[in-house]
From TrEMBL:
<dbReference type="Pfam" id="PF00665">
    <property type="entry name" value="rve"/>
</dbReference>
<dbReference type="GO" id="GO:0003723">
    <property type="term" value="F:RNA binding"/>
</dbReference>
<dbReference type="InterPro" id="IPR012337">
    <property type="entry name" value="RNaseH-like_sf"/>
</dbReference>
<keyword id="KW-0694">RNA-binding</keyword>
<dbReference type="InterPro" id="IPR036397">
    <property type="entry name" value="RNaseH_sf"/>
</dbReference>
<dbReference type="GO" id="GO:0015074">
    <property type="term" value="P:DNA integration"/>
</dbReference>
<dbReference type="InterPro" id="IPR041588">
    <property type="entry name" value="Integrase_H2C2"/>
</dbReference>
<dbReference type="InterPro" id="IPR001584">
    <property type="entry name" value="Integrase_cat-core"/>
</dbReference>
<protein>
    <recommendedName>
        <fullName>Integrase catalytic domain-containing protein</fullName>
    </recommendedName>
</protein>
<dbReference type="InterPro" id="IPR050951">
    <property type="entry name" value="Retrovirus_Pol_polyprotein"/>
</dbReference>
<dbReference type="GO" id="GO:0005634">
    <property type="term" value="C:nucleus"/>
</dbReference>
<feature type="domain" description="Integrase catalytic">
    <location>
        <begin position="178"/>
        <end position="291"/>
    </location>
</feature>
<dbReference type="Pfam" id="PF17921">
    <property type="entry name" value="Integrase_H2C2"/>
</dbReference>
Length: 291
């Protein structure tokens, strides 16, 4: 209600609540047991002091130094160190009799790759196992065996299984059929265009515009500069192609900046020329001109 900028939902609630006259007061948790009895039980709260949990001991020291909280109010200060916690749990597990009884029932495999491979061949490669995935193979082996580094060993084994790689399920969409460019009905009806750039400077030219007739395979090589604009491209096309062979029906090209520019796009639309752009990073679409 005090924010300067409200969202649409907050504005609707503010307009609705403005019709009422009310005051906001604090209600202790022990008086609100029915709405959320599990999390509002008053008997689980400590009667004295406060609990402060800090994952960083430096933050706790800064709070005390700044006198934001008096040390006398602290009932318990818990500094969580996850690495030490995990180490202590692992040490206690070996002292747990139930945990040790479970390990005693498992076959302890020595650090011998030959024995470990023979176990995996029975749990993964056999016809009864059916080449399961990494998680299922791990569960099958864990039932009877245990050795150090078993999880990573099983993952590497399953990922390198040739039969699993050949027969694994396909989760992506099926690939489409290859559709080659149709053969034109006559010469200079369907063209393809490409630039050859980064050439040595010759007569103030460092690039070549290649235009190929897809029907007769006749090619036109036009010297130009790599700094030309889409307007310059239109002038070259009209001077060397349109003036001699007329307008084509379609032009195949890559997705270069000149071929996708708004000027060239609008020009082709006005002249009723279909622009057939190749797929990104697939120059084989226009392999004839690329070569």
């Amino acid at each position: 209600m005090t924010s300067k900028v409200l969202t649409c939902r907050q504005a609707r609630w503010a307009e609705f609540l403005s019709e009422f006259h009310f005051s906001i007061t604090y209600r202790p948790g022990r008086l609100a047991t029915l709405p959320d009895a599990l999390s509002r039980r008053d008997n689980i709260y400590l009667e004295r002091g406060e609990d402060f949990i800090s994952k960083n001991p430096m933050n706790l020291q800064q709070i005390i130094k700044q006198d934001e909280v008096q040390p006398s109010k602290f009932f318990a200060v818990k500094v969580e160190s996850f690495s030490n916690l995990i180490d202590s749990i692992q040490k206690k597990l070996w002292q747990d009799p139930q945990y040790r009884s479970i390990l005693e029932d498992l076959g302890k495999v020595p650090n011998n790759s030959t024995i470990q491979l023979s176990i995996l061949q029975k749990r993964h490669d056999s016809p009864l196992a059916g080449h399961p995935g990494q998680e299922k193979t791990l569960k099958l082996v864990k039932r009877d065996f245990h050795w150090s580094g078993m999880t990573q060993f099983i993952k590497d084994y399953v990922s390198s299984c040739q039969q699993c790689s050949r027969n694994k399920n396909i989760h992506h969409k099926k690939f489409g059929f290859l559709k080659p460019l149709p053969i034109p009905n006559g010469p200079w009806i369907c063209l393809s265009m490409e630039f050859i750039t980064q050439l040595l400077l010759s007569d103030s030219f460092d690039s070549i515009l290649v235009i190929v007739d897809r029907f007769s395979k006749m090619a036109v090589f036009i010297p130009t500069m790599s700094s030309i604009t889409s307007l310059d491209l239109a002038h070259l096309f009209i001077k060397n192609i349109f003036s001699k062979h007329g307008l084509p029906l379609s032009i195949v090209s890559d997705r270069g900046s000149l071929f996708v520019s708004s000027f060239w796009t609008n020009l082709c639309q006005q002249l009723k020329i279909s622009r057939d752009l190749s797929t990104a990073y697939h120059p084989e679409t226009d392999g004839q001109t690329e070569r």
